[in-house]
Design a protein that fits this description.
224 residues; mainly alpha; two-stranded antiparallel ribbon; 7 helices
Length: 224
Amino acid sequence: MTAYSAFGIVVSLFGLVTNAVNIKTFVAMGTQDGVTVSFLFLSSAELVCFSATLGQQLSMALWVTEIFSHYTTVIPYHPMIFNLCFANIRNCLFTIPVVITLYVSVMKCMCVVRPLHFKNMFSKTRTMWVMSAICVFAVVSYLPIFATTGVTRQYDKNISRTRPMFWSSPHRDLIKSIVWTARDSFPAVVSQIIVVACIYVMSRTLIRAARFQGLPSRREDEAG
């Protein structure tokens, strides 16, 4: 468990640094088009997700510290409170990068298929509205899970006294399964299908374009 927490902390820090660099780069470039706005939102969402993952791993390290000290070192709040809180935040926002990646894939596809209409279809304003809608959907759709959890003062047998601990509704597992299937599993599968379709359409378009561009040169060679 200690090695797992250490590895998670390293990965989280790496994700924080790389996404912070990406955000700085996109801000320096200026959000003048939908492409830059999309990548800026994507990096920002991933930055928050990695921050939540880092918090989750640090809280796990606190819990490990309590266990290894045989509960001679005890913090006022049960470490699992922070662990599950950060886990919920990460799971809540995880949908955002998935859907934004899908949006970027469609954007790239349309850039190849409809290059003349690309800028109007994915303008800065329209992309801002789409990104905002994705963020609102991610948060609102996760509210049922947030509503089934909380913090109450309970008796902790490990330390033989009460302290604030994580509480969950008996219906949480059912609600979590429904929500995760509707907002995470299904969109992820659909996203993969759409991404594959975009790759296929782009490939066909590029092949046709290459054949069209090569046709005049072949005619000149035949004429010569």
